[in-house]
Description:
Helix 6 packs across helix 9 and helix 7 runs parallel beside helix 8. The two termini are 38 Å apart. This protein is of the alpha/beta class. It has a 6-stranded parallel beta sheet with strand order 8-7-6-9-10-11, with helices on both faces. The chain contains 22 helices and 17 strands.
Amino acid sequence: MPPIGRQVAGRGLIEGLVQHTSAQALHAVADDDADLTHFEDLAVRAGWNGQIRRHRHDALSSRAEIGTLMLPGPGLAPFAWARSRNGGANYALCGLTHTIATHRMTEELFDLLVAPLTPADTIVCTSKAVRDAVRYQFDMADEAGWGARDAHPELPVIPLGIDTSAFADNHGTRADRRRRLGVSQDGVAVLSVGRLSVFEKMHPAPLFLALQRAAAEIAQPLHLFMCGWFPDSISERLHRAMAAEFAPDITVSFPDGRDAETCRGLYQAADLFVFPVDNIQETFGLAPVEAMAAGLPVVASDWNGIAETVVHGETGLKVPTFMAAPGSGGGMAARYADGTHSYHQYLGCVQQRVAVDVRALAQAVQALSDNPGLRRQMGAAGRRRARDVYDWAAVVPRFEAQWASQAERLRGTHPPALTRHPDEARRPPHPDPLSQYSGYASARLSGRHVLTQAAPLDKARLSRLIHLTGAAQSGYLAATPETLLRISAEIHDRTQISMDDLAASLDLSFVETEAAALRLAKYDLLQIIDQEVRQ
């Protein structure tokens, strides 16, 4: 099985807890003995040699020794109903966000608002951006009259963690690793790590285009290692085709990221790490934290939790991201909710309304490629930040303090009353993603933003781009080819123009203009200017 982010994070939390907890005993709660045994095996392999107390979930209400029950996801509702049916409120519930973009997660968050929660129940969010997205959904439910307005669980922010020692620098093998990878002595090795899915992780076109731009400005040869795995043949074909088309002067390879040793070896051999994510599936991003732990400077999109992990100008460089303004994504949500579009198609539709600044990405890569001293300085700062903020030794105490606080608040709380679950037909619709996730990007596109031409576009090239970049596979085009060509021609004639003036000049709605501008910017066919990177 390839490593999936939420599974890696869950296993890491267990391992980190075992190694850094102040508790004298671990409590395992599950529905059957096989799951309890599996937890014991994980804990023992991670080094636990203390007591493990096993609890069946159906008998948990009588166990006063459980202060807070930690769950692997945000779906507290079934556990709250079970707790209430069993006649008790003598333990609190604590969930944890991973991705919240799936329809299943949307429904689980809605269901929290009709479940018998206590004031001590909590969902830990891994970033402020995710917390804001969850709050948006709760507010939407309030407006629709779904559930009780005072039933919102607390939403503290605690990041995910890693074992930073696993990525410790090993200078003794660096030269040998680079030689075996075919990186020349003066070459710059650029690393990216993650699932190689165009629609579910990040669109690779901005990265390829940016590296090609950077390669034209620096003397050293660039090598890109996209360490990961292809979830399907379409993703592999698209990645390889885009690499050949957009980055012909870059040596691009795709090492197997399912092998942990391969990944860690690449962290040691690389010069810098890139992570230009543009997908709402991503909520935190462990890979940039791993890169910092390995002493690599990070070039990342200013996006979601990544905007909080990377300190611009200190541990790396953040690249601006632009997203469509809130309010026009209801159709995307409806097509996903009613089954017209698959989850991958839904993510791809939203992704078409997001653009990473390709020129800024190229400039960041160039700045670090040209300056080994800056790379070392940022790498050292990143290693310190990873150790001080994201090592399990720092993260586990924050979780333990959260759990203790919940247990304390639970004292004196009356058991929540059982209530009738509302009619499912009244459940609010799947949220508009452009509204719910508007805080993920650096900026929402507005009429004040100015567009300037980056490259000419004709009908033949546009047709090739649509098929080459996966837009055809998404089953949805945010902007028609005719609109894309009209906007490209208009900007070429004007040199630069504001969004408002462009829409007026072509007699287009703002939504049509916005969708087309973001599509063109994504492929470096125009540039959006007048926006600062979040610090």
